[in-house]
Q: What sequence folds into this?
């Protein structure tokens, strides 16, 4: 029999059996696998059940919006046809132009009921209204984020007079009362291209809304990026890059920008739902999208006129809007916590 060899250390003793020792090339060193910051962030995010559920809800909304035409085709309805005037549906509305039946006219033919007065299908109106609001919000948010990051980077890294004057311009735009400016400026933008006697095309209204909201939507992110860049400009790794002869563009792109991705991404998750609410507000007060373009704000405007006679008309748009905005805000909190666990809830 072979006796084990005892090795005594300072804190513990280890017993090795000669017969169990690997011989020759049979011994393979253990591989130590590290994790990148992105992998660590992803692992922390997956452990956050609230964030994961919110992400699924947000993805669901975007997928449904993208597939709205296909879903409407399979469903067999569209958001523009006045079904109350179709011979196949003679009793959709009563003598007061309200939906017949219970719960706003819900049935196997019209899953979410029909619109009062006109008899359009509520389900397809909601699908296309989500599509309009979500896609416009993505475009506007992207423009605001790109503009805010560029201006904030230039202001924070340049310093001196450039920072001073860029800061004063940002303060000037922040001084605008946004809601009143939207109401006053939207008709001006559309009147620049269309005669008051003509109907404004939907695409032109979409462009006008995008321009106005982009014009007044980049300032908060620019100030956030500026403050982050100022806190990083005097750090050792930035000074080392300057000493090594790196160009300002390379320093900003390689050293500073990766360190401000987290606040940029988190702020973007707050800008997008806020943009959706603003688009809905503009359509609700009549300066955004108008009939017959399906839109969340238009549905709320119609529902506000008939909520006493048909409260169900606002139920599904309201639930959808609240669910999306809440999920996106919770997703933003989870992304922030995943990037920076020190701020965890």
A:
């Amino acid at each position: 029999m072979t006796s084990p060899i005892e090795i005594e250390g300072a804190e513990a003793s280890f017993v090795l059996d000669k017969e169990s020792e690997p011989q020759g090339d049979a011994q393979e060193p253990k591989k130590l696998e590290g994790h990148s910051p992105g992998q660590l962030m992803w692992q922390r995010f997956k452990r956050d059940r609230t964030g994961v559920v919110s992400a699924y809800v947000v993805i669901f909304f975007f997928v449904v919006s993208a597939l709205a035409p296909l879903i409407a085709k399979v469903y067999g309805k569209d958001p523009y046809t006045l079904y109350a005037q179709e011979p196949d549906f003679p009793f959709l509305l009563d003598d007061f132009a309200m939906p017949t039946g219970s719960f706003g006219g819900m049935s196997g033919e019209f899953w979410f009921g029909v619109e009062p007065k006109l008899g359009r299908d509520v389900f397809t109106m909601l699908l296309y209204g989500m599509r309009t609001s979500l896609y416009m919000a993505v475009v506007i948010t992207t423009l605001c984020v790109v503009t805010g990051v560029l201006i904030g980077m230039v202001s924070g890294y340049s310093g001196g007079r450039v920072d001073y004057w860029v800061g004063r311009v940002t303060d000037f735009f922040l001084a605008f009362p946004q809601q009143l400016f939207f109401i006053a400026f939207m008709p001006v933008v559309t009147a620049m291209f269309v005669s008051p006697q003509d109907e404004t095309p939907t695409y032109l209204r979409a462009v006008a809304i995008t321009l106005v909201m982009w014009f007044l939507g980049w300032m908060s992110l620019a100030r956030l990026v500026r403050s982050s860049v100022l806190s990083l400009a005097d750090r050792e790794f930035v000074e080392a890059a300057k000493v090594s002869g790196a160009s300002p563009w390379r320093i900003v792109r390689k050293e500073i920008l990766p360190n401000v991705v987290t606040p940029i991404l988190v702020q973007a998750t707050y800008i997008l739902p806020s943009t959706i609410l603003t688009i809905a507000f503009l359509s609700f007060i009549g300066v955004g999208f108008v009939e017959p373009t399906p839109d969340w704000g238009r549905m709320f405007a119609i529902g506000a006129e008939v909520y006493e006679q048909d409260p169900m008309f606002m139920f599904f748009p309201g639930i959808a809007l609240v669910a999306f905005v809440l999920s996106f805000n919770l997703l933003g909190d989870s992304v922030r916590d995943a990037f920076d666990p020190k701020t965890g809830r």
Observations:
- The chain has 13 helices and two strands.
- Strands lie at 5-8, 13-16.
